[in-house]
Design brief:
Layout: H1 4-18, E1 23-28, H2 41-45, E2 50-56, E3 59-64, E4 68-72, E5 78-83, E6 92-98, E7 102-107, E8 114-118, H3 142-149, H4 156-160, H5 171-181, H6 194-216, E9 254-258, E10 261-265
Antiparallel strand pairs: 1-6, 2-3, 3-4, 4-8, 5-7, 6-7, 9-10
Helix pairs in contact: 1-6, 3-6, 5-6
This protein binds a DNA duplex through residues 1-3, 32-34, 58, 72-76, 91, 108-112, 127, 151-154, 158, 161-163, 170-172, 259-262.
DNA sequence: CCCGATTCCTGTAGGC
DNA sequence: TGCCTACAGGAATCGG
C-alpha cells in the first residue's frame, strides 16, 4: 500500500520519462475508481505536453499546458512506465500513452485510487485545499503538532493520521513513529507534551526519510515490473509484530484497534 | 468544531 | 479441496 515514501519514489521514477512528453492518447479500461474517471479526459488531453510532475500529500500532479491531472494510488495502486505495446494484465485500468512510445500504466486491484482533472490551480481543488503541511517541510514541527492538539481528546495516533493536521502518514508509519518517540498510540492528542511532540515530529521525519532513501535504491529498475516499496526494505519495529519481542526491551508487542485501524505498540516503552 | 463509524474494493488468510 | 468470513487500508462523508 503506497504511503508517502512510495509515492515519492514513484514520482522520481516516472518524472524522467514523462516530463516534456506529449500525450498521444488515454485509454480507460475501468472508469470506476474511488471517483469516476472523467469521460472528457481523452479529448481534453490529446496532444498536450506534460510540463512537470510534482507530489502533494499522496497525490501525484501531472502538470500540463491545459491543466493538471490529479492521481492517487489508493492502497493497491502502482504506476509504471512501460513500452506502449506491453500487453495489459488484470487490473491495468488506465494507460496514458506518450509520444516517446512509452505509456504510464495505472494498475489498481482494489480501485481505491483516483484520476481526476482540473484546469484551475490544483491547490484549490476540493481534494487538496484542506490538506495540512508536508511532514518533511519546515512548517511541520513539534510546536505545530502541539499547538493544534490543544484540547483535543482524539488518540494521538488518529491525530497524526488526519490529513488536515499533517499529510502522508499512513498506518504503518504512524505505528513506527510513535514507537520511536515512546508515545502510547491511544494517549489523547491534547495530553502529549511539547517535548514529546518534538520527538514525534523528528521520528516521523526520520522514518519517512529512511523509507524514501531505501525506495530510491529501486529507482534504477523502475521501468521494470517491480518498484518494490521502501517499507519492504526498512526494519519495522512494531507494525504487524503482535506477540513478538519489543526490539528495545523484549516485552511482547501489543495489538489493539484504534479508529478501525490495527495498532501495535510496546506497553513498556510507550507511555 | 470534534469525533467515531461507515463506505468504497479485491486479494489473502484462516477456520471448518 | 472448497466454501465462508474477516481483514487489510486512504480518506471522504455522515451522524451524533
Amino acid at each position: 500500500m503506497p504511503e508517502l515514501p512510495e509515492v515519492e519514489t514513484t514520482l522520481r521514477g516516472i518524472a524522467p520519462w514523462v516530463c516534456g512528453q506529449r500525450i498521444t492518447s488515454i485509454v480507460v479500461r475501468q472508469r470506476q475508481l474511488r471517483y469516476p474517471v472523467p469521460r472528457t479526459l481523452a479529448a481534453t488531453l490529446d496532444g498536450t505536453r506534460i510540463e512537470s510532475v510534482t507530489r502533494r500529500a499522496k497525490y501525484l500532479l501531472l502538470h500540463t499546458q491545459r491543466g493538471t491531472l490529479i492521481l492517487h494510488l489508493g492502497m493497491s495502486g502502482s504506476l509504471r512506465v512501460l513500452d506502449a505495446e506491453v500487453p495489459v494484465q488484470k487490473h491495468d485500468h488506465i494507460d496514458i500513452v506518450l509520444d516517446n512510445g512509452k505509456c504510464l500504466r495505472l494498475r489498481d486491484p482494489r480501485r481505491f485510487g483516483a484520476l481526476l482533472w482540473t484546469s484551475a490551480d490544483p491547490a484549490r481543488h476540493r481534494l487538496l485545499r484542506d490538506l495540512g503541511p508536508e511532514p518533511l517541510s519546515a512548517a511541520f514541527s513539534g510546536e505545530y503538532l502541539c499547538e493544534h492538539a490543544r484540547g483535543r481528546r482524539v488518540a494521538v495516533k488518529t491525530y497524526i493520521m488526519d490529513s488536515r493536521i499533517v499529510v502522508g502518514i499512513g498506518n504503518i508509519y504512524a505505528n513506527e513513529a510513535l514507537f520511536l518517540a515512546g508515545i502510547r498510540p491511544q494517549r489523547a492528542a491534547g495530553r502529549v507534551s511539547l517535548q514529546r511532540y518534538q520527538q514525534l515530529a523528528s521520528a516521523i521525519k526520520a522514518v519517512l526519510n529512511q523509507a524514501i532513501a531505501e525506495g530510491g535504491t529501486t529507482l534504477r529498475d523502475f521501468t521494470a515490473s517491480d518498484g518494490r516499496p521502501g517499507y519492504f526494505r526498512i526494519r519495522l519495529n512494531v507494525y504487524d509484530r503482535a506477540g513478538e519481542p519489543c526490539p528495545n526491551c523484549g516485552e511482547p508487542i501489543s495489538q489493539m484497534r484504534l479508529g478501525q485501524r490495527s495498532t501495535f505498540y510496546c506497553k513498556r516503552c510507550q507511555r
